[in-house]
């Protein structure tokens, strides 16, 4: 079931005017920033479907930028997010796309700075609830409601076992896990949602595993 | 965990308790937390709703100028003593409008279940506050009851205008409110389910066609009518009227209607009222050459 908490229905407390196109957009932006791990220098946001058609009226672009700035849905600074982004020296580009997305409320966020570059896609499914659906071309499903780690690894035997062994050794329970790859034997992505918080030492341990390229951590 | 309205009603009947109680219990399990902390979270939502109603009743205006001030007009009309349909209904209407006027003005609201449909549940609740004088605890319960029914809709159909049209937003809100009104007024869980079914049936097929893509026209007035329908549906159910089509089947019908609804009528601002000459003119006026697309 997609909706498990009554506060997904009665809530969130938010700055108007739209739960899906304003609050949801802010959440997608904030999750993207959390995956990126810090404030990016450049942000390119592409809007699809209903987001592309009605973003001005709903301040969807403003809310996405607010999210990238790490503002919550009820942050009074949300309506002025573009100004704050400008003051923080972040280069922001917003474009609308004609391609028909799988979900009508889709945004794709490309973030970069001198160290890194990342592309995250998210959907807003209603009432302020969102899912991250893509990371650097890998399909995934992430709600952002639990702590999570994203592991990019070489697609070969033993890597998944290595990661889960480290987690079990640290008494971390996995609530949801999925693996995906674009091509057999090349790069793969592991998405692991956990019940407990994952501290930095666990992340370092996973990073040191053979076959692991990159580990990203998301806090809830 | 209840998956549909039938299971929700059965759970409440088995345990001889309210729908609100079932929802609170489930939330405690999902969050692994105490009753107090769940109640506290919901009380915070109630406070925000109350503040939004008060702010709307003091008069607000949106950035575009399309909406604002109608909640005040309706309150003044009620005070004139000339109301035809019923003072509690018009009070609910005015408080629903107040909430959505604040939302349109980018003010702080609580989404119930969405921001565009945020007026119906608090509008009816704060009108009944005058009529039934509920305790704060009963008002919080009202939100849990609404939430329980809303969760069933969200999981089995949709609460998104982009996915299911306005029937999924204001329709769901009207159903949720109708059920909560019924329970607050002393109706049984079964009567609450019938009230929801009656309200939602009368919202089926409602499209999402916001002028200029703004959550203003016709959203604010749809919340007004959503509140009125919720009140009437609750009254009918409390009178003993039952929905011939069971609530879960009405929800299923809403889902199917939403799936077959053309995208021009699902929050794209390309059809319905958005596409009327006046709708187009307003869009041009507000955004000039920088149209929404």
Automatic annotation (TrEMBL), chain A:
InterPro entries assigned to the protein according to its UniProt record, in alphabetical order: ACT-like_dom_sf, ACT_dom, ASB_dom_sf, Fe-S_L-Ser, Fe-S_L-Ser_bsu, Ser_deHydtase_bsu
Swiss-Prot/TrEMBL keywords: 4Fe-4S, Gluconeogenesis, Iron, Iron-sulfur, Lyase, Metal-binding
Domain of life per record: Bacteria
Catalysed conversion reaction: L-serine = pyruvate + NH4(+)
Pfam family, one: ACT
SUPFAM superfamilies (UniProt xref): ACT-like, Serine metabolism enzymes domain
Gene Ontology molecular function, alphabetical: L-serine ammonia-lyase activity
Ranges of residues in domain ACT: 148-220
Cofactor: [4Fe-4S] cluster
CDD domains in the cross-refs: ACT_LSD
Pathway where this protein functions: Carbohydrate biosynthesis; gluconeogenesis
Similarity comment: Belongs to the iron-sulfur dependent L-serine dehydratase family.
Protein name, per record: L-serine deaminase
Naturally occurring in which organism (per UniProt): Paenibacillus profundus
Lineage: Bacteria, Bacillati, Bacillota, Bacilli, Bacillales
TrEMBL record, chain B:
Uppermost EC category: lyase
Biological pathway: Carbohydrate biosynthesis; gluconeogenesis
Keyword Chaperone included in the entry's annotation: no
Keyword Protease listed: no
Cofactor: [4Fe-4S] cluster
GO molecular function per UniProt: L-serine ammonia-lyase activity
InterPro entries: Fe-S_L-Ser, Ser_deHydtase-like_asu, Ser_deHydtase_asu
Enzyme Commission identifier(s): 4.3.1.17
Record keywords: 4Fe-4S, Gluconeogenesis, Iron, Iron-sulfur, Lyase, Metal-binding
Pfam families, A to Z: SDH_alpha
Residue ranges occupied by any Serine dehydratase-like alpha subunit domain in the UniProt entry: 15-274
Domain of life: Bacteria
Catalyzed reactions per annotation: L-serine = pyruvate + NH4(+)
Family: Belongs to the iron-sulfur dependent L-serine dehydratase family.
Protein name per its UniProtKB record: L-serine dehydratase
Species name: Paenibacillus profundus
UniProt lineage: Bacteria, Bacillati, Bacillota, Bacilli, Bacillales
Gene name for this UniProt entry: sdaAA
